[in-house]
């Protein structure tokens, strides 16, 4: 049975989601397998920085949706603002623990996405898009943590 129209991932969202993985995968490959130590380090920096950008974007999605509500939901705004703050903390932590924290924050945001969809705050298809994208990012972060230059 085909999913209902409101649960189908719109093609533009799917294509942009897949395209958003290109920098992540490329950086992880560079960090784990480049022949030059300098390129491996560059791959690590690119991966952890890009991951922080993605997490900030994911938080901003929820912040924008919360701003549309009347009355304004302070709890939802705080939840949205927490994502980039945690990503910044992971950047500041850096190295192997920063990569691990970045992975944990991605999972935390995914859990919030699932809750938001169940409560009707976000499109029902959104968690279906986020699951595989988060999975690929987790593999990239954890592989770089294990086999990267740091």
Tally of discrete structural domains: 1
Task: Report low-confidence residues grouped into runs of 5 or more.
Answer: none
Number of helical stretches of at least 4 residues: 5
**How much beta, percentage-wise?**
under 5%
How confident is the prediction overall: mean pLDDT?
A: 95
Task: State the separation between the terminal residues, measured CA to CA.
Answer: 47 Å
Largest sheet: none
Shape: globular
Q: What class do helices, strands and sheet pairing give?
A: mainly alpha
Q: What is the total tally of β strands?
A: 0
Order of helices and strands: HHHHH
Share of helical residues = over 70%
Rg from Cα:
16 Å
